[in-house]
């Protein structure tokens, strides 16, 4: 059934939607921000170290789960679609039930989300700075792009 769908549907679900919320990277940034805000200074380093270790261990567990699913679930069945949906629902349920917002109240100022201010703040990085900073920023963007492309190609080769 799913293999008869047009390729743009696959593009939307595999690239566009994860690209909008930045996927796993934004999740881990949110976790680190939450722990940093809701931890004492003495425990913050320990908790952030635990998060980094958890990321590595969970990546290994996730790779193992993918291998088990590939071995046990028929490729043409619904398992490839139902298993990730169920795991995401379980994660959302656990997060909803057990993660409490203990942050301080703040005045919501969404001015920085407006495109005019976003573009202005982005271009201010490049203005009135030394040439070496612009070169360093360009090299960082280039290295990040190469790194992401390398990881994407590696992950795509696992899918094939």
TrEMBL record:
Keywords: Membrane, Transmembrane, Transmembrane helix. It comes from the Eukaryota. Gene3D superfamilies: MFS general substrate transporter like domains (1.20.1250.20). The chain crosses the membrane at residues 12-36, 48-69, 75-99, 135-159. This is Uncharacterized protein. It comes from Sipha flava.
